[in-house]
Amino acid sequence: MNIGCVVYEKYFNTGELTAEWTFDSGTGIVEGTGHATGKPGNNYDGDYKITYFDTNGNSAGEYDLNITIEKNSYILKWHQNGTMKFTGIALQVDSKLMGGWKPV
What we know:
104 residues, globular
């Protein structure tokens, strides 16, 4: 299937994000958490350095995450070494950002 889901929560005063994610690669579902650093602010748009972890706490990848606002949605783009690896779209629900993503 190659499709995933992520929920972010931002600590607006520090710019940090926490993540919970799941991904169906077609050979099974994997899931984990994540932690990102970014700039403080009142919404989710901006640039972040994020590391994802599997359920055992092992690194599942480090990315540059760019979040932009378009209308009432957030556009998500993950890069490694300047190359976009994943893209997604999200909605803010209460104080959390909930989105879907896929490899490019």
